[in-house]
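Homework-ish question, so no full write-ups if that breaks the rules, but can someone show me the predicted structure for this set?
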Amino acid sequence: GAVVSQHPSRVICKSGTSVKIECRSLDFQATTMFWYRQFPKQSLMLMATSNEGSKATYEQGVEKDKFLINHASLTLSTLTVTSAHPEDSSFYICSAGQGTREQYFGPGTRLTVT
Amino acid sequence: KQEVTQIPAALSVPEGENLVLNCSFTDSAIYNLQWFRQDPGKGLTSLLLIQSSQREQTSGRLNASLDKSSGRSTLYIAASQPGDSATYLCAVIGGNEKLTFGTGTRLTIIP
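A: Not a homework solution, just the prediction itself:
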């Protein structure tokens, strides 16, 4: 299957700082990338959908000014958590699709804000 | 709004037994349904994808069925092994191309 990577796998940052997470499709061109967050023992919740070269579409309740998404190329999307707070600590997972309605998931990034 | 529910939330079975995980969804207008496993602290591993026109898919000891009209899917695991212990998630894709995930079933296989 298609391979999607995320970097970093784990990050610890101080409250008030910003953190950038990268999502890359390694062996295919992703027309659409999705960002999810997952709290402990809960399922994945979609945060936003990004299409290459256009603005991301955010789900209801997700602050677009706090979670900045950039999809600059067909193989890279980034999620920047700005002015992070402890409540932003979570597991962030990206996925990539080719328009076939099957998504390929990255390994996730564990963010801890102290 | 699509809602996906998985029952049971947790399941423990002795090694070697066959088991069934259940998934139900409220809106039958889906394109496909996918089953994933997630190990603690890890990402998702795709297990099986069933297109809306299909009724089942098989991979090794896993068999997934789909009854789109009744909004149900099952994941059958044969001859369970301790390595099968994980959280199993089902997810559906609808017309908006967004995946809606179920609540998950945490499976423990007892050696």
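Now go work out the reasoning yourself. Hint: Chain A touches chain B at residues 1, 6, 32, 34, 43-46, 49, 91, 93, 95, 97, 101-108, 110 (CB under 8 Å).
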